[in-house]
Amino acid sequence: MTEQKDPTDAVGYLWRLHRNVLIYIALLLTLFGAMAWAERWGLSRNLIGPIFLFTTVMIYAFIGISGRTSDEDEYYVAGRRIPAMYNGMATAADWMSAASFISLAGALYLQGFSGSGQQAGGLAYVMGWTGGFCLVGLLIAPHLRSMKLYTLPDYFDQRYGGRWPRVLAALASVLCSFTYVVAQIYGIGLIASRLTGVQFEIGILLGLGGVLLCSFLGGMRAITWTQVAQYIMLLLAFMIPVSWLAYKQMGTPLAPLVYGQQMSKIEAIEKKLMDDPGEVEVREEFARRAQMYKERLEHVDRSLIELRQELEEKIRLLKSQSADYAAIAQARRELLAVPPDAMTAREQWTRAMHENLERARPLGGMPMHAQAFAGNPNGTPQEVQLFETSRLNFLALVFCLMVGTAGLPHLLTRFYTLPSVAQARTSVAWSLFFIGLLYLSVPALAVMVKFEVLNNLVGSSFEDLPSWMFQWARLDSGLLSFSDINGDRVLQLGELKLGADMIMLATPEMGGMPYVVSGLVAAGGLAAALSTADGLLLTISNALVHDIGPGRERKPKSPEGRVILSKFALLAVAMLAAVVAAFKPAEILALVSTSFSLAAAAFFPGMLLGMLWQRVHRYAVVTGMLVGLGVTIYYMVINAPSFRHFWGLDPLGGLWLGIQPLSAGVFGVPAGMLSIILMTLLLPKGVGQVPQHTSASKTDYPGL
Question: In this structure, are residues 668 and 601 in contact, taking their beta carbons and an 8 Å threshold?
Fold first, then answer.
């Protein structure tokens, strides 16, 4: 069944969908109310988290199992019969990944609206992703839906013909989707470990089980309806704490409309902290440590020997004085942490020097929250340069996120599930509405959390710090760390380091809300990560089986056989992504941004020019994809910290115009587009083109 042609059947189908969604919302509210009541009557916090995790994952699994299918049309594109509103909800869930739900508010907290010279501000993500959806709705989605495809590489096959456009598109799909899915599984592990108290690696496996239950059996049909359920979950999980915090601070739950009140208060506190004596002492200590690492790096081998001797002497002295066991144990840990060789020492000390230099800046290295850009366009040459670099990084990231959105394979596949082109346009509008509900609240959350930290945490005695800080610090020091740098037993802003990936998850605890809200937020974050991981894994497995290999003559002849092969490819990719995520390769937002640059360089030039210019041929698009991806990957590799440390290069010496590597697509997209144009003009007309009667660009895009 591909369309609801009988109006009576269509009305009945929609009524059943509405009824099921209302039942699900009632179940979620009942679960939340029951957990709140149980916590009030003494239910242990150690049980609330696991109950939320188990219950929500089982609901998703039930939906996934109910949607099981072996029909090829249902498995790949959900039978092309998803209503526009529900497809918009599923797309929003697919889009509101761990990066948006968990990390975006953290990026705005740490980087402000426009960031520093080395980092684009968090507002760049909001603008880039939202603008990208407009680009998808106006230009990309309706054209792709009109072609009745299964995967994005199908477009390159139909439009350009030949094997290589399809294979390169499939390989690029795997590359950018795998980078993206690693970030989601990392988020799943983080949330599952926080909810249940298990080790991070075990948390990854628990969450991965939920991903596979949702996507393994039913493909796109099961994923679509689990994503609808997950969107409702993450919407409740985001809006309840944001509204609660707004009501606590400003007396109204309408956070997006009133959070500007807190901006002036934050600005006043930031100016006060700039000159606070305690903060100045902390900054001086970090500057001293940075200088120490700089001196060690001048003679690495000699510094290693001297450092070991110094620590061994310190341990002997402590033992001779019968010092406290904790002091001796700390000295031994310092000795064990000494790098084993000069290469490792150079890498660790270089990183430590830059971290300490960053924290030696005012406000712990964070820019003032409402600052337009770092630096000053009318200041010293250094300030002018910093201003230009900051603005360039902001614009480059917005560009990469916009065009990357227009080329994301798992996102574009969502628009293949709709009954018609008109429904595809309507679905984009619904997607923007559902995404906007959360995106309008993200900047408000970042501002309110910063006010909470500056007003209530900073200046507190170390003896009075809340227990949640110690729990997060034990989970991962990269998420939260604090220490008494200047010895005054008072927490300074410079002594506190928060990771972007914990800001949203810790919001209920920062705001003094019941722990049940923390469980709800973690369940919402898990829903965001699961929903995106489902779509990404399906995209990768489809690219490997449907688009790359085995060869068409060796593929299973029956649709059921091809679906089964896709399911096992999905399982293998999921396990590989879990292994990579266990190494915590980077922060969630950085990994996701990287995948957008890769998608932009690989797909956008060939898709755009293929839709607008009939003459573009397969030799041109193959060249453009290789050049665009090559430039992007090259820029990312030569500016990777590990690469530069290995070769002993200046950490910032490989940047072009000061642009960070996660925005490498700003170079790859123009390079790919220029290559396509040049190859098209250089080769004779008609070479490498699909015959006119089969050309998608001629038959499906009248007037272009």
Answer: yes
DSSP codes joined into one string, 536-592: HHHHHHHIIIIIISS-TTTS-SSHHHHHHHHHHHHHHHHHHHHHHHTT--S-HHHHH
Nearest-angstrom CA–CA distance, 360 and 494: 8
pLDDT tens readout for residues 188-247: 887 877 777 778 888 788 777 767 766 555 577 888 888 899 899 999 999 999 999 999
CA angle 162, 164, 167 (to 5 degrees): 115
Q: Which residues pair with 461 in a beta bridge?
A: 490
- Residue 490 CA to residue 272 CA, distance in Å, equals 16
8 A C-beta contact, residue 480 and residue 502:
yes
Angle (nearest 5°) at CA 397 between 264 and 350? 90
**pLDDT score at 700:** 39
Which residues, in sequence order, are CB contacts of 19 under 8 Å at separation 6+? none
pLDDT of residue 557: 54
Instruction: Delimit the domains of the chain by residue range.
Output: 277-373
What integer best gives the mean pLDDT of the chain? 84
Residues 6+ apart with CB under 8 A from 453: 493, 496, 498, 510
Q: Which of 265, 240, 236 is CA-nearest to residue 253?
A: 240
Whether the predicted pLDDT of 65 surpasses 70: yes
- Around Cβ 614, how many Cβ atoms within 10 Å? 14
pLDDT tens for each residue of 138-179: 778 777 777 777 678 888 988 898 889 989 999 999 999 898
Angle between helices 219-250 and 84-95 (to 10 degrees): 70
CB atoms within 10 A of CB 699: 13
User: How many CB atoms lie under 10 A from the CB of residue 197?
Assistant: 15
Q: For 405-445, how does the pLDDT look when each residue is reduced to its tens digit (9 = 90+)? A: 988 888 887 777 788 878 878 888 898 899 888 888 999 99
The greatest distance separating any two alpha carbons of the chain, rounded to the nearest whole angstrom, comes to 91
DSSP reduced 3-state for 480: strand
CA distances from 413 to 142, 154, 155 (A): 12, 11, 11
Q: Where are the beta strands (DSSP E) in 429-478?
A: none
Does the pTM of the predicted model rise above 0.90?
no
